[in-house]
């Protein structure tokens, strides 16, 4: 009976092990930040492109 109890305790300690949990949480945070940066860059690139187009149009208008 004691042998069974110690095997059960060993299995239970494996299930309660939380050493890898922090690594997974950090990986999820990095993935979320990368996704947000990718989505934000798309919007930012559009705004920068529009600003350069506006400046180019204004310069072309004044030169001709």
Overview of the molecule:
The protein is mostly helical. It has helices at 2-15, 21-63.
Give a quick set of tags describing it.
2 helices, 64 residues
Identify low-pLDDT runs: none
Mean pLDDT: 83
Following the backbone from N to C, one meets helices and strands in this order, namely HH
Helix amount:
over 70%
Summarize the structure.
By secondary structure, the chain is mainly alpha-helical.
Present the secondary structure layout:
Elements: H1 2-15, H2 21-63
């Amino acid at each position: 009976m004691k042998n069974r109890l110690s095997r059960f305790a060993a299995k239970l300690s494996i299930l309660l092990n939380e050493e890898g949990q922090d690594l997974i949480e950090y990986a999820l945070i990095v993935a979320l930040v990368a996704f947000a940066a990718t989505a934000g860059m798309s919007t930012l690139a559009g705004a920068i492109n529009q600003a350069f187009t506006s400046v180019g149009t204004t310069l072309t208008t004044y030169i001709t």
